[in-house]
Structures are given as structure tokens and as C-alpha cells.
Design a protein that fits this description.
The complex is a heterodimer of chains A (474) and B (256).
Chain A (H helix, E strand, L loop, with lengths): L6 E12 L2 E12 L3 E5 L6 H9 L6 E9 L5 E5 L10 E4 L11 H12 L3 H14 L15 H13 L5 E5 L7 H18 L2 E6 L2 H7 L2 E6 L2 E6 L1 H6 L4 H6 L4 E9 L2 E4 L2 E4 L9 E7 L4 E4 L7 E10 L4 E7 L4 E6 L8 E6 L5 E4 L5 E9 L2 E4 L2 E4 L9 E7 L4 E4 L7 E10 L4 E7 L4 E6 L8 E6 L5 E3 L7
Parallel strand pairs in A: 3-8, 3-9, 6-7, 7-8
Antiparallel strand pairs in A: 1-2, 1-4, 4-5, 9-10, 11-12, 11-14, 12-13, 14-20, 15-19, 16-17, 16-19, 17-18, 21-22, 21-24, 22-23, 24-30, 25-29, 26-27, 26-29, 27-28
Helix pairs in contact in A: 2-3, 2-4, 3-4
Chain B lengths: L8 H22 L10 H8 L1 H33 L7 H8 L6 H15 L5 H26 L2 H9 L4 H12 L1 H17 L2 H7 L6 H10 L3 H23 L11
Helix pairs in contact in B: 1-12, 2-12, 3-6, 3-9, 5-10, 6-9, 6-10, 7-8, 9-12, 11-12
The chains are: A alpha+beta (474), B mainly alpha (256).
């Protein structure tokens, strides 16, 4: 990435909570002039909150937002925008459901901002005409906004914002309400508009395809934190963690071990790769894009074999699920179809193996030792058989992912949780479960759960390894 | 004709018996003389009856004053109640509507008694006070309803386009709450024209309203003239409704 020149907005360590629920956690991000930046993430990741902080509808609890500001005599300086109300900020917003004023016609909606500024009538008229032409809505001036289709309302909303010649245009999921075909057309138009206007676009979406198509820079967010910032190619080819890999595009996310530099083991085989600096015999996550697996009945330099389980035509390519010789399942895309049951050979080029450091290799939870056989953890009392004698007070509990038991009936567990996030790892699922106490516990399981399932959570007494002494050190 | 249309029958009978028939009777009585012959004299009599005309003028004046005061007090109240930053609890809204649960006659009687105890002379002031007190909830409620349902993003969009808070109010909130204002005006203005109980209790009949003379005529068995006056009032109320409501009635809105 290039350096910090030409910056128009600088967000520094911004946090925001609503009623004790922290939706943005220490966000730092800078945006360059003329860039098309997309804030991408699942619903509830904080992306819209960040946009509303920029627009001035919300104020950050911590941190500050700096914006380039037109100073006296046209000299630009940089200013902390804390406390500056929305109507004074040099940016305009395209709202998610457009928010066109229902009591005004198309012309008056678009002219709204200019009229407030006291721009002369004839100038307003020429500018409205020009901007209507830009959004391909000429001759719609006198129409009632309620009589317009979703796509047309969308165009009017964009026209209403850009006529004020903002330096930055904020777009809050502007295409979410349109159907697929319309959405694709509008994507192309938005991109063209961005090039024509030359202003900065900050775009919020949960649609990864949209983000990849439109953006110069993508900011992937999850649970109030920035996961990765990069160009669409960077983000797609080199996701930094399993969340990004799973969220952007299709992928096989597998458990692996980095044997040494440039050699990684997964699905029971050693593969040459291009990654270095992980150390030796370190557990890692490996991401393989479905289109990067070379597949054939007989291929040169085959690294492993398997049997096709299913095959479906997806328009351009075939999507297959293949059981490998080591019992893992791989999703593979290829232009040739292989019937289910076919024995196939496969290989993966070193370049196409993306190795990521594991965020964690086991659960480590804060706990409190109650007596020789019990600890308090996740807000509940757990039986535990490995407490060092004489230890008490606060401690840390280590639990392997595979040793956490989930139950259909919440009464069967010691505590309850909600399935928050699911990763398929080729031969098992890796779940993130949010427990009642608000803490996360990570679980490896062969069972199929759905996102949002309520589950009982329990752990065998022998599977909790308590590391005492946390409290005595200080 | 499906079977389901039969379900409407009881309501149809109700409408005929209690709405259409009484209206027809009013017209019938208004167009007859004492011996049962057809005549227009009841109607024409009103226009030459100086007493009735001046009472009518007073009624309209009182109704306009009452409506204006209710609007001036009611709009800010509704605005505050509907604004989640200013009013965090739904209970406050209910408290404002609460007087509607008590019979208007009771409230008026109690108010009159209060005035007596405090030693106020009953007159126009007490009349207007009583009317505002009685009808204010009918102004607040429809406006509150419209403001509460209004999409907050309109105001945000306006602010985003450079409107100061007062400009947001004048250019967005106020015009968009028009349906509620119209409903409120209708619900206050119409019943005030025809009221008689309030003026009876709160002015000791010093000030007569149009409703009062209808009541007097009916009470003294002058049914034909009474019916004619009722008919004239209906026409006037109907005209006001059409004039006020013609504009924006189709916008989702604020009637009770």
C-alpha cells in the first residue's frame, strides 16, 4: 500500500457503544482523496454505525475523526469534526431506503440542498438538469417521487446528494433494495459515476460481490473490528484470517501444520507453499479457493487422490465436492465435469495455498477456583478434576475445541449459548458459540448446527485444564 | 354474491337504522311545516333570524379560537411526546390522552365547579378554557400519531443536505405532519360548532352557541325548525371537511 498522502478522512481509535453493547472497537482507518472505499461485513458488524459517525448523526465515545476542511481563502486544513452537526459537514449521504422527501417532486428533492444555500434560481435549474442527465433521469423533474420505481428513486437519491458537490459521498447499502439485474446495472453506473465525478466514495455493503466489483479499497469488518484492509485482489487472494476467507468468495478452510518454511501439511499430505516465517510444526489455517484445485482423471504431478461426491453445473463452471483419500471434503470448481463416483487426481500450486496463523489453538477462559473440584467459568459453576492442590482465586482454564459438548436441549448443558459463526473445515465444523455470559467459546464438532441455534454447553470434568497462579503473580 | 357478503348484513342494518334513517328524518322534518306540508320556510327563516345568525357567528368564532389555541398548544406537545430524545416513556403520551377516557360532561361539570370555588366569573374566558381542556387531546393525538410514524431518515437526509434544525422542521417535519394537523383541526372544529353542554355549564348560558339554539328549539317542541338548523349545521360541517380534507387526505394519516 502507498503511504499516507492525499488523505481526506482520518479515523483514529474510534469506539462506540449503544447501551453497554460495544459496536465499534478501536477503529483506525484513513481514506484517500478520490478513492472508492467499501466497508464490508455481515449485518451488525458496525459498518453502518461507522458511516453515521462520519455523517455526524452519531458522535464517537472515544477517538477522533479528522476531515479535510476548506479553510479561509480556499486553503485546506485538517480538522477534528467532533461536535460538528451533520448540516455543516462537507459530505452527503445516499440513504439505504433513499429517504426522498415524499411531499416534494423530483426537481425539488434534488434542488433541496442548493435552495438552502441560496443558489440563484437559474443556476439551480441548470445544475438539476445536468445532474439528472448524469443519472439518466432527464425529463423526470415533475414526477412525484412515490410514482418512481426503486431504481429510479435510487438515481434521484444519488442526484440529490452529488448536486451539492460534496468532497465525500457516503452510500449506505444503496443497492440493497433492488433486484439482482438492476443491482448489477447500477453497480456499473456507480463505478462510472465515481470516475466521472472524481470524488471520494465511502460505500457500505454486506454483499462481497458488490465490494469486489466496485472498490479500490475494501475494509472488511466483523464484530466491531476491522479484520483486513486491502485491494479486492489482496483480500481475495490473501485473506488474513478464516473469517475474511469465509466471507469473501467461496473457500476451503482447513486445519494444517506448517512443517517448516515453504512446506505445509494439510488433508494428510505435505505441500510445497510460498509462506515463510511461521516457525516449525506450527498449527495454521489453510485456505484453498475452489477454482485453485487442479483436478483430472490423471494429471501430471498429482499430489493426492479422491472420489467425486457430487457435481452441479453453475453456468460457467461445474461445482464438485470431492472426498479426498484422507477423508476430507473439498469444494472444487472446474470447467470440466466429473461424474459422482469418478476417481480423480488433484494438485494445488504453491502460489494458490494461502496459509494463515491460527487466531487460537484452544479455548482459554478466565475462571475462578471455588473448591478442589469446582471452578466458576462463563458465569456458571463447572466440575473440574484437574485443579492443582492448594490453588484458589482467579485462574485460566484451557479447553480443547473438540472437548466442548453441545446439546440440542439447553437444559442438558451447564450453560447455554447461541451458535454465532460456522466454518466448515473439510472434515469437521468449527463453531463460534456466544455464551449467556457474553463470552465466546470455540467448538470443533462433526454435528451439523445452524447459525442462531440455541445450544446447551457442557465440558467433561477431565477436559478442563486449569492453570493456576494467575492471581498470585500480581 | 359470495356467502361472506352476508356477514356485512348486521352492519348494513345498523347503518340504515342509526345513520341513514335519522339523517333522512332530519331532512324530512326540516322541509315540513307544523301541519305536515312541504315547505322551505324553516330554512329561509334561519337566514332572517337575527338571533340565530349572530349565535351562529359566535359559534364559528369560538370554534376557530378554540381550534387555533388547541393547535398552538397541541403541536408542540405532540412534537415533544413523539420525540424519543425528549420523551423516553410511552406513559407520558398516555397521560396526555387520558382525559379522553373520562366523559366530557363530567370533566366540564368539574371544571365549572372549580371556577365557582375559585371565584372566577363565568364568561367567554371560562368557555374557551373549558373547550381547550376538552378538545386538546383530539388535537394532540392525530399529530402525535403522524409524527411518531414519520421516518426519521427524512430529517436526517435534510440535515445531511445542509438544513439547520429549524430548517428541517419548517421544510420537512411540518409539511409532512400536515395530515395529522388536518385531522386534528377537523376533530376539534366540528364538535365545537355544535357543542352546547360546555357553554351551558361554563357560562351559565350567558353565551349561546349554535348547538344551544338547536337544543332549545327541540326542547320546546319546535322540531321542524330545530331539524332545519341541524341540517344547516351538517351542510356547513360537511363543506369544511371537504375544503380542509380535499388536499392531502390520501396521505397515510392521522385520524383516530
Amino acid at each position: 500500500m502507498t503511504g499516507r498522502e492525499n488523505i481526506i478522512i482520518d479515523i483514529e481509535h474510534v469506539s462506540k457503544s449503544f447501551g453497554g453493547n460495544q459496536v465499534l472497537k478501536d477503529i483506525s482507518l484513513y481514506i484517500r482523496k478520490g478513492e472508492f472505499v467499501t466497508l464490508l461485513g455481515p449485518s451488525g458488524c458496525g459498518k453502518t454505525t461507522l458511516l453515521r459517525l462520519l455523517a455526524g448523526f452519531l458522535q464517537p465515545d472515544e477517538g477522533k475523526i479528522m476531515m479535510e476542511w476548506e479553510g479561509k481563502g480556499g486553503k485546506a486544513d485538517f480538522r477534528d469534526v467532533a461536535g460538528i452537526p451533520p448540516h455543516l459537514r462537507p459530505l452527503n449521504t445516499v440513504f439505504q431506503r433513499y429517504a426522498l422527501f415524499p411531499h416534494l417532486d423530483v426537481y425539488d428533492n434534488i434542488a433541496f440542498g442548493l435552495k438552502l444555500k441560496g443558489v440563484p434560481k437559474d443556476e439551480i435549474e441548470t445544475r438539476v438538469k445536468k445532474v439528472l442527465k448524469l443519472v439518466s433521469m432527464s425529463d423526470y423533474e415533475d414526477r412525484d417521487v412515490d410514482s418512481l420505481s426503486g431504481g429510479q428513486q435510487q438515481r434521484v437519491a444519488i442526484a440529490r446528494a452529488i448536486i451539492n458537490q460534496p468532497k465525500v459521498l457516503l452510500l449506505d447499502e444503496p443497492l440493497a433494495a433492488l433486484d439482482l439485474k438492476m443491482r448489477q446495472d447500477m453497480q456499473i453506473e456507480l463505478k462510472e459515476m465515481h470516475q466521472k465525478l472524481g470524488i471520494t466514495f465511502i460505500y457500505v455493503t454486506h454483499d462481497q460481490g458488490e465490494a469486489l466489483t466496485l472498490s479500490d479499497t475494501i475494509v472488511v469488518m466483523n464484530e466491531g473490528k476491522i479484520q483486513q484492509i486491502g485491494t479486492p485482489t489482496d483480500i481475495y487472494n490473501e485473506p488474513v484470517n478464516s473469517f475474511v476467507a469465509d466471507f469473501i468468495g467461496e473457500s476451503n478452510i482447513l486445519n494444517g501444520t506448517m512443517i517448516r518454511d515453504r512446506e505445509v501439511n494439510f488433508i494428510g499430505h505435505d505441500f510445497p507453499c510460498v509462506d515463510e516465517g511461521f516457525g516449525e510444526n506450527v498449527p495454521v489455517d489453510v485456505v484453498i479457493r475452489p477454482e485453485d484445485v487442479v483436478i483430472g482423471v490423471s494429471i501430471d504431478g498429482a499430489q493426492f487422490t479422491g472420489k467425486v461426491k457430487s457435481c452441479a453445473f453453475k453456468g460457467v463452471h461445474y461445482e464438485m465436492y470431492v472426498d479426498t483419500d484422507s477423508g476430507n471434503e473439498l469444494q472444487i470448481q472446474d470447467y470440466d465435469a466429473y461424474e459422482p463416483g469418478t476417481a480423480v487426481e488433484m494438485k494445488i500450486n504453491p502460489d494458490d495455498i494461502q496459509v494463515m496463523r491460527k487466531e487460537r489453538t484452544e479455548n482459554v477462559l478466565e475462571c475462578e477456583i471455588i473448591d478442589e473440584n469446582h471452578i466458576e467459568m462463563l458465569g456458571e459453576e463447572f466440575e473440574c478434576s484437574s485443579i492443582p492442590s492448594g490453588a484458589d482465586g482467579p485462574a485460566k482454564a484451557h479447553i480443547k475445541f473438540s472437548k466442548v459438548d453441545l446439546w440440542d436441549h439447553v437444559e442438558d448443558g451447564v450453560t447455554t449459548g447461541e451458535v454465532w459463526f460456522i466454518l466448515y473445515k473439510g472434515d469437521h465444523y468449527h463453531l463460534t458459540v456466544k455464551t449467556e455470559s457474553g463470552e465466546f467459546i470455540y467448538v470443533d464438532t462433526d454435528d451439523i448446527w445452524d447459525k442462531g441455534d440455541l445450544v446447551g454447553v457442557s465440558i467433561q470434568p477431565g477436559d478442563i485444564i486449569v492453570e493456576a497462579g494467575n492471581g498470585q503473580e500480581k | 354474491m359470495g356467502k361472506r357478503s352476508n356477514w356485512a348484513l348486521p352492519y348494513f342494518i345498523f347503518l340504515v337504522l342509526f345513520v341513514a334513517l335519522p339523517l333522512l328524518l332530519i331532512v324530512l322534518y326540516a322541509l315540513r311545516d307544523g301541519s305536515g306540508g312541504f315547505t322551505l320556510s324553516n330554512i329561509t327563516r334561519f337566514f332572517s333570524d337575527g338571533d340565530a345568525l349572530s349565535t351562529f357567528a359566535v359559534s364559528i368564532e369560538v370554534a376557530i379560537e378554540n381550534t387555533l389555541i388547541c393547535l398552538l398548544l397541541g403541536y408542540p406537545a405532540a412534537y415533544i411526546l413523539a420525540n424519543k430524545d425528549l420523551n423516553k416513556s410511552a406513559v407520558t403520551a398516555i397521560l396526555f390522552i387520558l382525559p379522553m377516557w373520562v366523559n366530557a360532561l363530567m370533566r366540564t361539570l368539574a371544571t365549572a365547579e372549580l371556577f365557582n370555588v375559585c371565584g372566577f366569573t363565568l364568561g367567554k374566558g371560562t368557555l374557551i378554557f373549558g373547550m381547550v381542556y376538552d378538545y386538546l387531546p383530539f388535537m394532540i393525538y392525530p399529530i402525535y400519531n403522524v409524527l411518531l410514524k414519520m421516518d426519521k431518515s427524512y430529517g436526517e437526509a435534510a440535515a445531511d443536505l445542509g438544513a439547520t434544525p429549524s430548517e428541517v422542521f419548517r421544510k420537512i417535519t411540518l409539511p409532512l405532519s400536515k395530515p395529522g394537523i388536518f385531522s386534528g383541526i377537523l376533530m376539534v372544529f366540528m364538535p365545537t360548532v355544535s357543542t352546547f353542554a360546555i357553554s351551558e355549564f361554563l357560562t351559565n348560558n350567558k353565551i349561546k352557541l349554535f348547538g344551544t339554539i338547536i337544543q332549545e328549539n327541540i326542547n320546546s317542541s319546535m322540531w321542524n325548525y330545530g331539524a332545519a338548523l341541524s341540517f344547516i349545521m351538517l351542510v356547513i360541517i360537511g363543506l369544511t371537511t371537504i375544503l380542509l380534507g380535499g388536499e392531502d387526505r390520501e396521505i397515510e394519516g392521522g385520524t383516530l
